[in-house]
Structure formats: C-alpha cells, structure tokens
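Usage

Read records sequentially. Each one opens with the input sequence:
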Amino acid sequence: MKLLHLLFSVLLMACTSENVSTDTVIDEDPILVVSDLIEGDITNDSLYVERAKINIERKRFTEALRDLERANLLDSTKGETHYLLGDVLLELAKQGDGSKKTLVLASNHFFTAVDRDFNTALSYKKGGEILLYFAEYIKSIDLLTRSVSINPNDFHTYILLGYSYRGSDEIESSIASFKKSISIKSENEEAYLQLGNLYFANQDSAAIQYYKTAIDINPSSRDAYYNLGLLYHTLLMYSESQDAYHKIVDLEIEDGIYEKAIYNLGFMFQEDLKDYRNAINYFIELTRVNSNHYMAYFRMGICYEGLGDVRNAEQYYRKTLDINPEFKEATEKLNKLLSDNEKYK
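and closes with the structure output:
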C-alpha cells in the first residue's frame, strides 16, 4: 500500500514539474493509473490487490477475482488477499455467478485469513454465513459467536446468529440474537421482521407490533405487509388483513409477492366471506399478471359454481386442466359439475 501511494506521489510530482494540470491527474481513472504501474512491475502482488479493491468498490467482481488470483499466485502468504478472495467469491455466489464449490473455496480463503490474523471478526462472520447457507447451523453458530466475541457491535452478525439459532430450533436464542441486533441498531427492519415471524410461528399476536415496527422503519416493506396480512387472516381479522395486502397492491410491483397477495385476497373473499363476485375480480387480476396461474382459474370455477353459473364454472375448470392436466381436484370438480347438470352436459 505504501509503495503504491509513493508511486502515485511521484507520478503527480512528475506531471506538475512538466506544467501539466493536476486536474488531469485527479480526473484520470485510478484503474488506468494502477494498470500502468502493473505494466512496469508485473510481479508486484500489491498492485493487483489495489486494482482489485477499486473493482470491488465498482461491483466488478469478476475483474477483481482475476487480479486477486494473480496476486495470490505471486504471494500466497498475505491474509488480506485471502480475505478479499473469499469476499469476492461470496459476492459472486450471491449474484448467482457461482456454485457450492465457489462457496467452499470462499470459506477456505476466510479460514486462511483467520490463520494470517487478518480481519478475523469479518472472516469468522462470513465463514459462518456460508455455513448458514449450507444449513450447518451448529458450525455456523460457532463461527458467528467467535465473530461477535471479537466485534460485539456488528448488528448484522447477530442477525445471522438469529437465523442460525432458528435453523437449529433454538428459538429463545434466536429471539435473543435478533433483539441484541436491535439494541445495537434500532432502525433494524430485518430483525423486527424476523422477530415477527418467530412470534407468528408460535401463534403469538405480539408479532403484530414487530411487523408494524418494521413498516414504521420502511413503509415499503412488502414482506412485513404480506406477513401481517397472513397473521390478521389467521386471527380472522379480515378487514385488517385486506388493508395489509392492499398496501402491497398499491405499490404496483407485479412480482411473486404481488401475486400471492392478490391470491390471498381472492381466497379470503371466496372461502371466508363467501363474496364470490369480489373474489372473481381478484382472480381475474391475478390471471392478468400471470396467465398460467392455474389455481386462479380453479378458484374462479369454484366461485362461478357457487353463483350457479355452470357454464363459466365448466369453462374455468377446463382452463385449469389445460394448464395443469394432473390437477386431480379440478378433474373431480369438473366431473361432478357435469354429472350434477346432465341437461347442461
């Protein structure tokens, strides 16, 4: 690092002495500057690491990986290089540009960084995060606990601990970890959301306040609105459930969460409120977003049958089976409908 700074200083002095504007040097892309230095010293591993750091800041992880692998070939004893290799491999895996082998390799680099006494707390943390992904909860808890023993102020490590404890069915420890995370960072949407989920799983209405706090922190938290809608529905609080689901609809992000919210609204009006016409409207909206949502067509068939509209009921049962011919319940509904209405048949 000191060598690189010295080289930058020399470069700046040379430009100044030749009456070249310092603005030119300041505006020059650091990647180009370091690349020029590398051309003059291709065996200097520190220069490759410096260029990798710039690419990491720019989220160009593939380019960073190439430089870090080169640096590690030149000198495999440096903990920083191993830590950065682990970090880049982990980021690539999170982006879907990796595999289980990528994560195993990342984990090995983090362990080497620990052995070299570099960024020990973060190395333990990220190694624990990888083990959490592999559902090796006990081992994950061990590494994450080591991490917080070194840095007890990392709120996110406690979130990871909360997940690991939950995975190992240590619910009280999971709750304690998420609460500890909140004590470090009060504006902690994820921790409040997970506490809501834990209390919801135990049918504890205290979950409501945790979800509401998550929403206070992030008024666009669709996960919190969705889970709150589910909880209210479970508690037979239909109006409140509808309000929560409609918050998702109002955000107009037409993805999987949107589809599930619309489906649940339709299901509520059909099954719980017996308001078939309102239910049909929701299912129509769902098929607009996803024309292959066979359960929406199936529910529409049930609604039309409930309204005594045999023709439309048959149409939507058949549409269901066009999309999913193996759906036995739709076949049974259709056959019974036709059997009960032989004249129509």
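Summary fields computed downstream for this record:
- The radius of gyration is 29 Å.
- Confidence is low (pLDDT under 50) at residues 1-26.
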